[in-house]
Write a structure and sequence with these properties.
alpha+beta, 12 strands, Heat Shock Protein 90, Beta-Lactamase, Helix Hairpins, rod-shaped, transferase, 9 helices, about 55% helix, five-stranded mixed sheet
Length: about 425
């Protein structure tokens, strides 16, 4: 047995409620009008019917008995006819309406006549009734009703279908207009994290919608101001730290102990790298903005591979040529550098591939053969400063910000970055762009 499932979207719920209400009001108004019109038409029709029977009785009273059969066809109508005989059994308790009509008929035909309703032909079928009138000479005159099938006008179904279509169409328009601001608000909320510089929502429409848009725009401005303030603070800290770090590196060069000098210089280099990557993580989305252009991914990655090859790094690259997508080239380059660096640090046999066979997306994979990452840490490694010491070699260094920066930039580019362990050992990073 099928069960009714209430729609899960506001658009469908409002459409059903509004359409059902309009349809109920439409049917109710039609019923009231029909009852009123039919009631008046029945009363007028009964009066006309009684007058016509009285006229027929007066005509048959005046003609000779032998001429009456010839008049029967002239007086007949599609819904009833006259018979010069009496048959059937007398009705015991006629309905009130029939009693009123009979009383009206008696008043019209005058004294000397008798009018009553009887069941005729088939006593088992009480719906087949007729009226019996006696002429002045006592001859019976039976008014036999002919049952006719009610015929619906051919234009009525088409008119009703047109009315339903109009109700559905205008319901759709009304609900669409009512929910469109919510759709715009949803889209703006979904893109708020990746683009704080997006155009503000239009503050028009009904007062409630305008107030909600104004509140959202104010929230967007506050978040953007806070983000700018955070970037400025981190940029100032980074700038201030560069000077003492540089002085410390210069002083380290004058240390006599070579081993101590190398360790100190390594620590200072790690500090400088941490400061730079922390600043890059803070800037993140803000650096991208709307500076997107059609970028040849094959050419971009091929130039990276050539740079690594010139630096003595070994990695392979495969993929179609001429694969372009609307993106930010510098952000895409930074993502690929972070992924390739991770593969070279923690694994070997690094391979970069472009897959553009699907019509709706482009996938770039960076795979390596190494220790991989335990499955329970595949999501956590995208958090800033998160390290998996059990699966990565500590001696390789790193700040724990590379994957966090790559994930943040991928989100800003509306791309998806995921990690998965490979069969046989190693890690595969998948960067998917929607076309």
């Amino acid at each position: 047995m099928a069960t009714w499932v209430w729609p899960d979207t506001l658009f469908r719920r409002l459409a059903i409620i509004l359409f059902a209400g309009l349809l109920a009001a439409h049917v109710l108004s039609y019923s009231l009008v029909a009852l009123n019109v039919f009631g008046l038409s029945n009363e007028a029709g009964d009066d006309y019917f009684m007058r016509y029977i009285a006229t027929a009785v007066a005509i048959l009273d005046r003609v000779k008995p032998e001429e009456r059969p010839a008049w029967l066809d002239r007086l007949a109508r599609p819904t009833y006819r006259y018979i010069l005989r009496e048959e059937g059994e007398t009705e015991a308790a006629p309905p009130k309406r029939r009693q009123d009509n009979l009383a009206r008929l008696r008043a019209m035909i005058g004294p000397g006549h008798e009018a009553k309703s009887v069941f005729y032909l088939d006593p088992q079928d009480r719906r087949r009734l007729g009226w019996l009138v006696h002429l002045k000479d006592g001859s019976p005159l039976m008014l036999q009703f002919v049952a006719r099938r009610t015929v619906i006008s051919p234009w009525l179904p088409a008119a009703f279908a047109a009315q339903l279509f109009a109700l559905a169409f205008f319901t759709w328009i009304a609900v669409k207009l009512a929910t469109q601001p919510l759709v715009r608000l949803e889209r703006a909320a979904n893109t708020l994290g990746s683009d704080l510089r997006r155009e503000p929502l239009p503050e028009d429409g009904p007062k409630e919608v305008a107030r909600a848009a104004a509140a959202f725009n104010a929230m967007q401005r506050r978040i953007a101001e806070q983000a700018v303030e955070r970037i400025q603070i981190l940029a100032g800290i980074s700038h201030r730290l560069q000077t003492p770090i540089t002085r410390m590196r210069l002083r380290a060069d004058f240390l006599g102990d070579g081993d101590a000098r190398e360790k100190l210089q390594g620590d200072l280099q790690e500090m400088q790298t941490l400061v730079k990557q922390g600043l890059a993580l803070a800037r993140g989305h803000d650096e991208i903005g709307n500076q997107r252009c059609q970028t040849d991914l094959h050419a971009l990655i091929d130039s990276l591979v050539c740079d690594y090859s010139d630096a003595g790094k070994s990695l392979r690259f495969s993929g179609e040529r001429g694969v372009t997508i609307l993106t930010h080239p510098q952000a895409s380059r930074r993502i690929m550098i972070n992924l390739i660096d991770n593969g070279l640090k923690f694994g070997e046999d690094v391979e970069v591939a472009i897959d553009a066979r699907q019509s709706n997306r482009i996938t770039i994979t960076v795979s390596d053969r190494g220790p991989g990452i335990p499955d329970e840490h595949l999501v956590s490694v995208f958090l800033p400063f998160y390290r998996v010491e059990a699966s990565r070699n500590r001696e390789t260094g790193g700040t724990g910000l590379g994957l966090a920066i790559a994930q943040q930039l991928a989100s800003a580019l509306r791309a998806t970055l995921t990690l998965a362990n490979r069969d046989g050992g190693g890690l595969e990073a998948r960067l998917e762009f929607l076309r």
